[in-house]
Amino acid sequence: MSDKPRKFKGGVHPNDSKALSATKPIQEAPLLESYKVIMHQNIGGPPELVVKKGDTVKKGDLLAKASGFVSVPLHAPTSGTIKAIDKCAGPTGIHVPAIEITADGEDEWGEAFAPIADWKNTDPATLKQRVWDAGIVGMGGAGFPCHVKLSPPEGKTIDTLILNGAECEPYLTADHRIMLEQAEEVVLGAAILARILGLKTAIIGIENNKPDAIAKLNEVAGKYNVRVQGLPVNYPQGAEKQLIYAITGREVSPGKLPMDVHCVVQNVASAAAVAGAVIKGRPSIERITTVTGKPVVQPGNWKFRIGTPISKALELVGGVSEQPAKLLLGGPMMGIAQNSLDVTVMKNTSGILLISADEVSFYTSEPCIRCGRCVECCPMSILPATISQAVENKRFDWAEELNVMNCIECGSCSYVCPSHRPLNQHFKRAKIEIQAQLRKKK
Amino acid sequence: MIAAIVSVGVLGALLGVIIGVVAKAFAVEVDERIEGVGDLLPGANCGGCGYAGCADFAKAVVGETATPDQCPVCSAEDISNIAGYLGIVAEEKEKMVAVVRCSGNASNTVRSLYNGVRDCRSAVLVAGGAKGCDYGCLGFGSCADACPFGAIEIRDALAIVHPELCVGCENCVAVCPKNLIVMVPASVDVHVYCNSPEKGAAKRKVCKTACIACRKCVKASGEEDHMLVDGFLVKTNYDNPPPTDLVEASACPTTALRLASKHAAGGYEGVSK
């Protein structure tokens, strides 16, 4: 393994707009009167409710327990009473079950987990169980349960743990601030994750546009035998497969997982959460999120409890200076557009981004001019132009033959397309239709 | 010259004889009734019967693995003609039509701006479809595209079925990402054009023509259970369908209760408060 990172094929260089919030320290959001905690915050099975209306809960108490292996428990963001178990606007635009908690203002911890100070001599299985019990999910955006990635199936050996601090998504600076302000926790989390996987070391990959974070982590990394690796600035450097290639030179084959090339990738925020869960016994009830965009009066990085409504979050940052045209959860490349301010902060909400009217363009999609720019920039080496034509003609079988399932939905092709074709949306649609077909066959 | 004519002539005659013999010896017997039934079928190849097309269905009918009444397009008369041709007794079948259970057109519902692919199944991937109501018709016409008979019209961003054109092939049912389309007996004209199970107040916030389960229609039908209450939604009881004058009698405050024929003709536009 060489120390020089490789450059993956393709990628784009959007204006990163990180300067809006990169220098703003993380601020803790004040306690709200009520929180609406969305039940299903992870990929996999939704957790099972263990509280009912009228129950009193303390901060960190269990609200819902894991319903299976690929499922994580959910904890109360503050102390108070369960006001209702109702529906709340969800991040995908559909109303989803949520637990509404009226805060009592005490913000008192309940029976938290016992801290495991001596993690170096603790059984890896106990540590892994703690990660699961604390309800930690991949905080990069997808929300995949953390403990599942730490449990490679029989016969798969893991030799490399990579921490993803690339944060290639424009506008977002939450991970950047975490690495700067919680460097110790990130590195400690990395060491704990390495112990769970039976490894001696871990590598933290960071894009070279964050030299201060690289320097800061380097200060503490040596203590825990963790290595910090600067990476070329290229979107989507933070995509799992691209990150593995840049650091190890291994390519994950289509349809395969990082563990097939003996790698596990975790986000730096997840690592910090793991350190908190093990050392302090804290469940995952907070989320450091970037609130940013041109219309935001004071863009910044905030520590929100899960269940904080976006409308409240926007009040905290001083409101908006002009009517925003678009609201995204996540960054501009992969974030999901919202049509309601009632959506609440979840464990995987990395950013709240507002776009002003003069930044949004309403294009009409034109026919493909076969310029091939999308093919050049596609980091997965598929043919976006051809696939989109297959999808427009509802030939999902054809799209499948053209390997649409390899698409990581990074949006690079839509970004460069001079005809403004909605390529990414076509691929999302195709993937869903193909998966539905597969389920039917079973 | 002559040799060429003779040799080609002989060769032609010889091959002709071989083809004749082979055609007789290896002939595949085709039941001529298949063609007969095929001529009596509509020839729309809609697939509503579950077979690959009309010819495939004709084969199945003659082979007695299907009955003529499985064709959703054929009228009762067409079916009895086919049955008569084959000398079998056809069962009476009820004609079914599709209903899109939503009345929230662009002027009745809250919507956000959407600039993506004009197709319901793609639109639903972006914030659930840019409509305030999670359950409502998106109006990009995936069902209209799927209808081989032109029976679905998109008017003011709402899919409306023309019952007189609908043959009941069910092609539209599976494509709706909101599962709004159901098949109902064509003889019933009274339907509830709402499919949202949310509470009344929540529905009204996003849609002027939602069913708020006020039960006026239930009361108007008196002792008869023409209308069934299902949570915060009322549904037509298709086993005991209401008479058409129930719509008038119940004076639905949101006009969610409608006559399919009047709905298709645009009779409810602009009436909601």
From TrEMBL, chain A:
Gene Ontology MF terms in the entry: 4 iron, 4 sulfur cluster binding; electron transfer activity; metal ion binding
**Amino acid composition bias (Basic residues), ranges on this chain:** 1-10
- Name the membrane topology term: Peripheral membrane protein
Query: Main location per UniProt?
Result: membrane
* Gene3D superfamilies named among the record's database cross-references: 3.30.70.20, NADH-ubiquinone oxidoreductase 51kDa subunit
- At the top level, the lineage of the source is Bacteria
Please tell me where [4Fe-4S] cluster 1 binds in this chain: C368, C371, C374, C417
**Binding site residues for [4Fe-4S] cluster 2:** C378, C407, C410, C413
Give the GO cellular component terms, alphabetically: plasma membrane
| Domain 4Fe-4S ferredoxin-type positions | 358-388, 398-428
Which cofactors?
[4Fe-4S] cluster
Q: Which UniProt keywords apply?
A: 4Fe-4S, Cell membrane, Electron transport, Iron, Iron-sulfur, Membrane, Metal-binding, Repeat, Translocase, Transport
Q: Which InterPro entries match?
A: 4Fe4S_Fe-S-bd, 4Fe4S_Fe_S_CS, Ion_transpt_RnfC/RsxC, Nuo51_FMN-bd, Nuo51_FMN-bd_sf, RnfC_N, Soluble_ligand-bd
Q: Which HAMAP family match?
A: RsxC_RnfC (MF_00461)
Question: What role is this protein assigned?
Answer: Part of a membrane-bound complex that couples electron transfer with translocation of ions across the membrane.
Record note on quaternary structure: The complex is composed of six subunits: RnfA, RnfB, RnfC, RnfD, RnfE and RnfG.
> What protein am I looking at?
Ion-translocating oxidoreductase complex subunit C
UniProtKB/TrEMBL annotation, chain B:
| Ranges for region Hydrophobic | 1-23
Matching Pfam families, A to Z? Fer4_7 (PF12838), FeS (PF04060)
Q: Principal place where this protein is found? A: membrane
Which HAMAP family does this chain map to? RsxB_RnfB (MF_00463)
Listed cofactors: [4Fe-4S] cluster
For this UniProt record, the keywords arranged alphabetically read as follows:
4Fe-4S, Cell membrane, Electron transport, Iron, Iron-sulfur, Membrane, Metal-binding, Repeat, Translocase, Transport
Q: Which SUPFAM superfamilies match?
A: 4Fe-4S ferredoxins (SSF54862)
Binding, [4Fe-4S] cluster 3: C147, C166, C169, C172
Name the gene for this chain: rsxB
GO cellular component labels = plasma membrane
The record's InterPro entries line, in alphabetical order, gives: 4Fe-4S_dom (IPR007202), 4Fe4S_Fe-S-bd (IPR017896), 4Fe4S_Fe_S_CS (IPR017900), 4Fe4S_Ferredoxin_RnfB (IPR050395), Elect_transpt_cplx_RnfB/RsxB (IPR010207)
Family of the protein in this entry: Belongs to the 4Fe4S bacterial-type ferredoxin family. RnfB subfamily.
List where in the cell it is found.
Answer: Cell membrane
Could you mention a single GO BP entry for this protein? Answer: electron transport chain
Q: Which source organism does the UniProt entry give?
A: Pontiella sulfatireligans
Residues bound to [4Fe-4S] cluster 2 are: C133, C137, C143, C176
EC code = 7.-.-.-
Q: Taking every annotated instance into account, which residue ranges of this chain make up the domain 4Fe-4S ferredoxin-type?
A: 129-156, 157-186
MF terms per GO, please? Answer: 4 iron, 4 sulfur cluster binding; electron transfer activity; metal ion binding
Name-wise, this protein is Ion-translocating oxidoreductase complex subunit B
Domain 4Fe-4S spans what residues? 29-88
> Which positions are annotated as binding [4Fe-4S] cluster 1?
C46, C49, C54, C71
Enzyme's top EC category? translocase
Q: How does it assemble?
A: The complex is composed of six subunits: RnfA, RnfB, RnfC, RnfD, RnfE and RnfG.
Q: What does this protein do?
A: Part of a membrane-bound complex that couples electron transfer with translocation of ions across the membrane.
